[in-house]
Amino acid sequence: MLMDEFGQNVKFNYDLKRKNWFNIGGRSKIFFKAEDLKELVNFLKKLNNKERIFILGAGSNILISDNIFDGVVIKLSKNFNNISLLGDDIIIAGSAVSDKSLSDFALSNNLSGFEFLSCIPGTVGGGIRMNAGCFGKEFKDILLSIQAIDKKGNIITINSKDIKFEYRNNDLSENLIFLSASFKGKKSNSISIKSEINKLKNEKQKNQPTMIKTSGSTFKNPESQTKKKVWELIKESVPLDKEFGDACISQKHSNFFVNKGNASFNDMKNLIDFVAEKVLKKTGISLEKEIKILE
């Protein structure tokens, strides 16, 4: 029935392994690539809230189970990738826009405040979902409002002041699919913006692994319990050469875990659990995962 209406945009028993940065994962019972908003609304109404839904963005912060995901994975097409300027200092970006593209667009329009996004390898939708950030800046600092759709196909707008943001979290319903967002920048000049971007990129290059199968920060910094960063807690508590299959800890940054080749979901999950257990035993601090796990 779904194939009749949505054709090649619906796939069954779809391989998710190449859709995430870890290159780990099994299959999704149903995979749907939403061509545009009208099609997404129709699809959600057809599902009638009878299936689990997961929205897959860049796949840069997710560990996917090797089992079949018993639900629907939705990927938004390039039609959710639009970006435009409203007035002098407001940018409207679709949820499939990459954080780097948003940063580049702000630079080309002489707007500061978006520099940190040049170092985040995700999308606008994912950034909103987890209040992504780095180098002391977060999505909440520039967000004005979001447009979203619920699982019944209703479209809503939410003002950022009505969202309760926390470190790498917020109180937005998991049932919302983000469509677009508006952001406010500050007029500046391209030379100083570019200089800040280069400074942040150099910092990242120096301290974080790149061009390998990793999925960013594994754990959140436990800010309320200690002044130490999570990588310091891991370094003090865990033998950094510990491996489970092809899952290992990055030598460059101990909060980044790496798939050396053919790590399974269980390999990576075992490594994550092992590190959390060791840190708890040594420091008494319970680590909270920043990475999303899809099972």
Briefly note the CATH topology name of the largest domain.
Uridine Diphospho-n-acetylenolpyruvylglucosamine Reductase, domain 3
The helix fraction, in percent, is: 25-40%
* Low-confidence spans: none
Count up the domains: 3
Spatial strand sequence of the major β-sheet: 6-7-15-11-12
Look at the structure and give the CATH class of the largest domain: Alpha Beta
Query: How many strands, what sense, and barrel or not for the largest sheet?
Result: 5 strands, antiparallel
User: Whole-Å distance between the termini?
Assistant: 26 Å
Number of strands: 21
- Form type: globular
Which value, in Å, is the CA radius of gyration?
20 Å
Reported CATH architecture of the largest domain: 2-Layer Sandwich
Order of helices and strands: HEEHEEEEEHEHEEEEEEEEHEHEEEHE
Q: What value does the average pLDDT take? A: 95
Counting DSSP H or I runs of 4 or more residues, the number of helices is 7
Note the beta-strand portion: 25-35%
Q: Could you say which structural class the secondary elements and strand pairing correspond to?
A: alpha+beta
Question: If you had to describe this structure to a student in words, what would you say it looks like?
Answer:
- It is a single chain.
- With 295 residues, the protein is α+β, with helices and mostly antiparallel strands.
- 26% of the residues lie in helices and 29% in strands.
- Helix 6 crosses helix 7.
Would you spell out the secondary-structure blueprint of this structure?
Elements lengths: L1 H5 L3 E6 L11 E8 L2 H11 L5 E3 L6 E3 L4 E8 L6 E4 L3 E5 L4 H10 L2 E2 L11 H7 L2 E2 L2 E2 L4 E7 L5 E5 L5 E2 L2 E2 L6 E8 L1 E2 L2 H18 L6 E4 L12 H8 L5 E2 L2 E3 L6 E4 L5 H19 L8 E3 L1
Parallel strand pairs: 2-5, 3-5, 4-21
Antiparallel strand pairs: 1-2, 6-7, 7-15, 8-16, 9-10, 11-12, 11-15, 13-14, 17-20, 18-19, 19-20
Helix pairs in contact: 6-7
